Amino acid sequence: MDDAHISSLTAITSLPVQRRQFLAMTSCIVGYTALTGPINAQVISTPAAGLTAGEVKVSSGGLEIPAYRAMPASGSNFPTMLVIQEVFGVHEHIKDICRRFAKLGYYAIAPELYARQGDPSKYKLDEIPKLIGEVVSKVPDAQVAADLDACVNFAKASGSADPAKLGVTGFCWGGRQVWLYAAHNQAVKAGAAFYGPLAGKPDDLRPRFPVDIAANIKGAVIGAYGGADTGIPLDTVEQMRGAIKTAGSKSRIDVYDTAPHGFYADYRPSFRKDAAEEAFKKAIAWLKENGAG
């Protein structure tokens, strides 16, 4: 997703909520989506050996939402990690991130948060504005929070996860949701937000942005943002830093000066190996230091 599309994501006017009694997606995306373009040679593929990994169904709002879950094949009481999708949905990159966390001893789960509104895999290359207008703009923040709550309950009921060690991470569209969910669920010990929008114009479906809820974050969120990300202006990063400071929060934001938007996405040209590795290493340390690992 390029910076122009990120800008449209932060500025788009949402449409009224439509109650639906069905799912637009009954399973997660297979592979990658056409929206992301050709897959880079440096793409990281984490094997599932030694893991229990695959699709599950999570009950939320009377519906069975598809999600991808990965955890060590043996043991229990694993720290719980919510993984929040990019704008492209739960495709192979997001599934791989779940496996990366599982290899580190986590119970990781990524729900398909557009399941009621539409399927990103149905859109072709260069149709990101269409995806945003037809699907993404119609996803209420309240729905996202409820689906993530349902995943926490699902993890707890499994007997394998320890929800007392609850963490959340997300990327792009999901990066914004990390901050919001950490404010929504006071049980979140720590979060890692990768280049999610921090400020914007509120509407009925997105009534608040991260800069508005810093004081409500009980846990600690670390943000990883790109200095060369023209879709998320650095002045909004400074706004968020100011809100964090005013709130007396433990949260913080690191800026990787030459990194563009999507610098952690190893399957895309935006990938910056050094920044990605450093940000992920810091995120893992942060999660553990703050009780989510």
Could you walk me through the main structural features you see in this protein, from its secondary elements to its overall organization?
- With 293 residues, this protein is of the alpha/beta class.
- It has eight helices and eight strands; from the N terminus they run αβββαβααβαβαβαβα.
- The chain has an eight-stranded mixed sheet with strand order 1-2-4-3-5-6-7-8, with helices on both faces.
- Helix 4 (141-158) packs across helix 5 (173-184).
- The longest helix is centred in the middle third of the chain and has 18 residues, at 141-158.
- The two termini are 30 Å apart.
- Residues 2-20 have low confidence and may be disordered.
Which architecture per CATH? 3-Layer(aba) Sandwich
Please provide the count of β strands: 8
Percent of residues in helices comes to 25-40%
Number of domains: 1
Distance between the termini: 30 Å
Secondary structure category: alpha/beta
Element order, helices and strands? Answer: HEEEHEHHEHEHEHEH
Assign the CATH superfamily. Alpha/Beta hydrolase fold, catalytic domain
CATH topological fold name: Rossmann fold
Shape: globular
Taken as a percent bin, the fraction of beta residues is 15-25%
Question: What is the name of the CATH class?
Answer: Alpha Beta
| Poorly predicted runs of 5 or more residues | 2-20
Query: What is the number of helical segments per DSSP (H or I, 4+ residues)?
Result: 8
Indicate the radius of gyration in whole angstroms: 17 Å
Sheet having the most strands: 8 strands, mixed
Mean pLDDT: 93
| Strand order, largest beta sheet | 1-2-4-3-5-6-7-8
